[in-house]
Amino acid sequence: MADARLTADLRGDLYEQFARVGKALGSGKRLELLDLIAQGERTVEALARAAGLGLTTASAHLQTLKRAGVVTTRREGTRVYYRLAGDDVAVLYVVLRGVAQRHLAETERARAAYLGAETEAVGRDELLARAEEGGVVVLDVRSPEEYAAGHIPGALSVPLPELEQRLAALPPDREVVAYCRGTYCVLAYDAVRLLRSHGRRARRLADGMLEWRAAGLPVAVGAGD
């Protein structure tokens, strides 16, 4: 009997360790921060601004993620940078979203309300083939910092707020494929709507940089390709 109780206690301890990760991910704001960190390492201040959080609140959420082992930090002078603890964390986040999308009807309603009307999309395989042939302009509409941290090789950095002013610089005879952070990032949707309103042929990548990294596809870093 004593051995059985000990085995149960040890099993319980093991499952509690698994639960630490689940508890850390049990917050919409922490998932939003994780989504941002998946684009590349960032400071606490940058993450707070991007997530619309106060510095103290953002720091508390990030410490929860760090204690659960899903993010790590490095210090550079007085600045602390957060990054994913590993590529498997990005995969876990993608799987979590997929489960919610498939099994919670509320997820689809929230997605549609946030992203708006559907825009035509292209898959990763088609994009790779078209880009290799030179038949498409690949547009990264995220922030310059996110682009520098990692982007699709050959992609041009044109943040969404600058897109309308920079339309003339895009080849008028080539289709544009826009991408942003991931499947649920609205920036690529808005970019396609803007491009089409100006008579340009445009589609979006069906997912984004998060899924691109999780699939192990090539990633370029730096401000220029």
UniProtKB/TrEMBL annotation:
SMART domains recorded: HTH_ARSR, RHOD
Pfam families: HTH_20, Rhodanese
Rhodanese domain span: 132-221
Assigned keywords, A-Z: DNA-binding, Transcription, Transcription regulation
Residue ranges of every copy of the HTH arsR-type domain listed in the record: 10-104
Record PROSITE patterns: HTH_ARSR_2, RHODANESE_1, RHODANESE_3
Stored InterPro entries: ArsR-like_HTH (IPR011991), HTH_ArsR_DNA-bd_dom (IPR001845), Metal_resp_trans_reg (IPR051011), Rhodanese-like_dom (IPR001763), Rhodanese-like_dom_sf (IPR036873), Thiosulphate_STrfase_CS (IPR001307), WH-like_DNA-bd_sf (IPR036388), WH_DNA-bd_sf (IPR036390)
Protein name per the record: ArsR/SmtB family transcription factor
Annotated organism of origin: Streptomyces flavalbus
Upper taxonomic lineage: Bacteria, Bacillati, Actinomycetota, Actinomycetes, Kitasatosporales
